Task: structure prediction
Amino acid sequence: MCVGLSAKVVSVKGDVALVDSSGARREVSAALLDDLEPGEFVMVHAGAAIARITSDDITESEDLAKEYLS
Result:
């Protein structure tokens, strides 16, 4: 099973993005996504932003995580 982490893009420099997920910030590869911009939401897996997602996707992911961790 693969697990991805949803995150908001804080900044982008070249092929590296700084992302924030629930207050935890880390640098990830942005090489797989063209024209990534701060404020967008991404799915992160294995240190790389692999897909753009919506804020609705973030809410759904957080709700599912709360359900399973409760």
